[in-house]
């Protein structure tokens, strides 16, 4: 038996989750709490520390950079991104370099994790 406590503004929802338990699934759907319907014991956590949040806020990504970041999160290569956006691979490399610099991370994996945790992309 797993207990998941989900906090919302002015409200706390506590559900005991059993695999495919109809009441719990109803609560998940009604409150959109980020719990997987297929694996209800799994909770999605979106959290970054204050320093990372400041980095994201102080260095906003352009619309194009957000588009490229979404494609990075989807696991696409530079050449796939370039092909989809009708740009050169060199241009995509520049966008990726700018994304890494603005997010203050060293690689695509860190950028992906930060993007998902901060809510920059879904």
TrEMBL record:
It comes from Anabaenopsis circularis NIES-21. Residues 54-119 form the HTH luxR-type domain. This is Two-component response regulator. PANTHER family: DNA-BINDING TRANSCRIPTIONAL ACTIVATOR DEVR_DOSR. Keywords: DNA-binding, Transcription, Transcription regulation. The lineage of its organism: Bacteria, Bacillati, Cyanobacteriota, Cyanophyceae, Nostocales. InterPro entries: Sig_transdc_resp-reg_C-effctor, Tscrpt_reg_LuxR_C, WH-like_DNA-bd_sf. It comes from the Bacteria. GO terms for biological process: regulation of DNA-templated transcription. One of its GO terms (molecular function) is DNA binding.
């Amino acid at each position: 038996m797993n207990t998941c406590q989900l906090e919302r503004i002015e409200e706390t929802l506590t559900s005991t989750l059993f695999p495919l338990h109809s009441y719990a699934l109803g609560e998940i759907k009604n409150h959109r709490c980020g719990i997987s319907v297929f694996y209800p014991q799994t909770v999605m956590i979106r959290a970054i520390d204050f320093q990372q949040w400041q980095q994201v806020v102080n260095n906003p990504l352009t619309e194009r950079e957000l588009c490229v970041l979404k494609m990075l999160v989807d696991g696409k290569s530079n050449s796939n991104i370039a092909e989809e956006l009708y740009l050169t691979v060199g241009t995509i490399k520049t966008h990726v370099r700018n994304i890494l610099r603005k997010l203050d991370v060293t690689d695509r994996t860190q950028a992906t994790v930060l993007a998902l945790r901060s809510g920059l992309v879904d």
